[in-house]
Each structure stands twice: as C-alpha cells, then as structure tokens.
Specification:
Blueprint: H1 26-46, H2 57-78, H3 85-109, H4 142-160, H5 174-179, E1 186-187, E2 197-203, E3 206-208, E4 220-226, E5 229-231, H6 234-238, E6 245-251, E7 254-259, E8 263-278, E9 280-284, E10 287-295, E11 300-302, E12 305-311, H7 319-322, E13 332-333, E14 345-347, H8 356-362, H9 371-377
Parallel strand pairs: 1-3, 2-4, 3-5, 4-6, 5-7, 6-8, 7-8, 8-9, 8-10, 9-11, 10-12, 11-13, 12-14
Helix pairs in contact: 1-2, 1-3, 2-3, 2-4
Length: 383
C-alpha cells in the first residue's frame, strides 16, 4: 500500500483563501506553493504508467519528477528566513512521503529483468528542520548538492532523447500535414490516428481541431508558435477533456485551449491571448498575456509581467463550468512576497474584454480573412 502524504497543518490565520484584496504573508504564500507543488508532482506520478517505455519517455518523466522533488526540497531550504524549524520539519516529512510514493511507483512501472541493477533515480531525504541543514548557517547544504546532481542528470537525458512530435503510432506526422500548402487559410488536422495532440513550429496559421480529435486527449502540447490562432475547444466540448496541457514558447498568438481536467503549464508566452478551462494553472516567464480563465484552484504566476486575467467567456462555458467555482482572479504571484498587491498582474476590465460576438464570429475565421487580420481584430499585438 502506498504511503499517504501527510501535508503540514499550517498555523496562523484561517485559509479560506479570500479575494485578491487580502494579502498573504510569506509564510502563508509558501504554504500555498508547497501544497500546489505536491499536488502537481502526485499528478505526474499518476501518469507514469500511461507513458511509453520505448524511446525513454517514461524515464524522462521519472527524471523530471525527481528534479521537481529536489527543487521542492531546495525551496524549503530557501524559505528558512520566514519559516520556523518546526514548519520546515513538517515540510520535510511530506517530501519524504512523496519520495516513498515515487519509489513505489517506479518499482511498479519498471519492467522486471533477470539482471537487477541498482537504480540511480533517487533523491536522498534531508531533514530541513535540522540545524545542520539550515542554509543560513550552512550554505553548502546537502539538498543543494542533490538538486544539482538531479538537474545535471536530467539535462543529459534530455540531450539524448529525440524531441517529441505529433507523429501517430502509424507514422503520420500531423505537423507536416498542417504545414502543407492548400487553398484554405484554416487548417483542420484530424489527429484521428493519434492519442495526444502535439502542435509545434508553426507561424501565421489558423488551426482548428475538428470533432475527430476528441479521442486524442491523453495529453496536449503547443510549442514554438508565432502569430497563430489555435482553437482546441471543439473536441473537448462533448468528448473528454485533456488530461494535461503544456503551452511553451508562443508569441503574438490566440490560443483557445479547450477543457483540461488536470494541470496546465504555461511557459515563455508573450503578447498573446489564452482561453483556458483547467483544474490547475501554472504560468512561468510570460509577459503581456491576457488569460480568459476558468480555474478550480488559485492560478500561479512566477517571473511574469503584464498579465491580465478575465473570467472564461460565456461562449465557452459548459454546464460543468457553470456549476463549479471559478478562482480566475485569485492569482498567487510567487515572486511577490511583499505587502500589497503584485504589480505583475491585474484584472482585465469589463470594457476591455472581448465580447461574445468576437468569440462567435471573428475567432472561428472567415473566408478571405487572413490570420493577421483576425489577430488584429482581437487586439494582438496589444496596443
């Protein structure tokens, strides 16, 4: 039986997570960050069994989780300035249980062999509540060393593995299909022979996923897009939601991401508009992005600037969203621990939000209208 992660019970004020006007002190903010990080790592562990062993996909995911655990351990050490030793010890115990869960999961998903080798995929547990591991007294702490070793190993694995693409098991390359010139300005790749959606390396294209892609929602990724419109909402309206979604290196684009049952990771997006329905949203290194959002937990931003948030447009609401709490405006900025609201994000005013007519009539595209013209009509780039 897997160990149960016992998350620390944080002392202090009540955690009703009020509206944005209430300021959390650094201790509360770190507590929120810790809970969110543990949940994401547990979600990633739950997906290991569905990943392929051939090609190193599963091992790369294991190494990514190991790096995440080491990073979280490192962050507990960095929080020593505003967390007492008792709290850090509780965090350390939660990390220890997380490590045990990961070891059990690795043992289950690793194919058995006649020959047994000692695994190097392990992060040693460190009690961050102990004086000898307090980074203020001992900057060369063990956790810092472990983190560097895991990161170095992760880089080596990533350099060896081939890049992920949208090729199906039958060998069809949907990105090549999207790139192929045709008379229509709108591309509708079916993804009929794929289990997941991976759209990458496009510029100046309008891409709409048809209902045929409804079964390809095991995962989704949108990477390296410039001046594009991508609408992924149709397959998830009646079909299954994406299990998870990654959006990375996107500029001057409009992304309608559809429904996501798990986490959405957004990294390196600039001068764009995103429409997202998800349980968790984490946003890193983004600038000048408007996000129309329905989120079941606090959205998290880190190393971001010029972010504006608005609720999900009525046009994309389903019955599930209408009956669920939306925490779109309860944003946590992990790079702003000072008193007062974060200067890195704001609420998009009602007068500046795109109306239903835009989502219904302009975003789907019209004959004879270029992608550049459509982007201009929705306000990309931002004036």
């Amino acid at each position: 039986m897997e160990a149960q992660t016992q998350l620390p019970t944080h002392p202090g004020p009540s955690y009703g997570f009020p509206i944005r006007t209430t300021i959390m002190d650094p201790k509360q903010r770190f507590y929120r960050h810790f809970l969110d990080s543990v949940a994401i790592l547990q979600d990633q562990m739950g997906e290991l069994e569905s990943l392929a062993t051939i090609g190193g996909e599963r091992q790369a995911a294991i190494d990514h989780i190991l790096a995440g655990v080491a990073k979280l351990q490192n962050e507990v050490a960095d929080a020593a300035d505003f967390t007492p030793a008792y709290d850090r010890r509780q965090y350390s115990e939660a990390i220890k249980t997380l490590q045990e869960q990961l070891n059990q999961k690795i043992a289950r998903v690793t194919p058995k062999s006649r020959f047994q080798f000692k695994r190097s995929s392990k992060v040693n547990h460190v009690d961050m509540g102990a004086p000898e591991n307090d980074p203020r007294l001992n900057p060369g702490s063990l956790s810092r060393t472990n983190h560097a070793q895991v990161e170095a190993r992760l880089v080596r694995v990533n350099e060896q593995e081939p890049p992920a693409d949208a090729a199906s098991p039958k060998g069809k390359d949907y990105n090549a299909e999207i790139q192929r010139p045709n008379e229509s300005r709108i591309r509708t790749p079916s993804f009929s022979a794929a289990q997941s959606i991976a759209i990458s390396n496009h510029s100046g294209l309008h891409i709409i996923l048809p209902p045929a892609a409804a079964h390809a929602t095991a995962a989704g990724s949108l990477t390296d897009l410039k001046s594009c419109i991508v609408d992924m909402s149709i397959p998830t309206v009646q079909g299954s939601a994406f299990a998870g979604l990654a959006i990375k290196n996107v500029s001057s684009s409009l992304i309608v991401a559809g429904r996501v049952s798990g986490p959405v990771h957004i990294t390196g997006v600039a001068d764009s508009i995103l429409v997202i329905t998800a349980h968790q949203v984490r946003i890193h290194e983004c600038s000048n992005v408007d996000i129309y959002l329905h989120c079941g937990s606090h959205p998290i931003i880190e190393d971001c600037d010029g972010m504006r948030f608005a609720p999900l447009p009525e046009h994309y609401l389903t019955d599930a969203e209408k009956s669920a709490e939306n925490q779109w405006d309860q944003v946590d900025d992990f790079k702003w621990l000072k008193a007062g609201p974060s200067p890195h994000w704001n609420v998009l005013s009602a007068s500046e939000r795109l109306g239903d007519a835009v989502w219904k009539d302009i975003v789907p595209g019209k004959a004879g209208t270029s992608v550049e013209e459509t982007l201009k009509k929705v306000g990309i780039p931002r004036n």
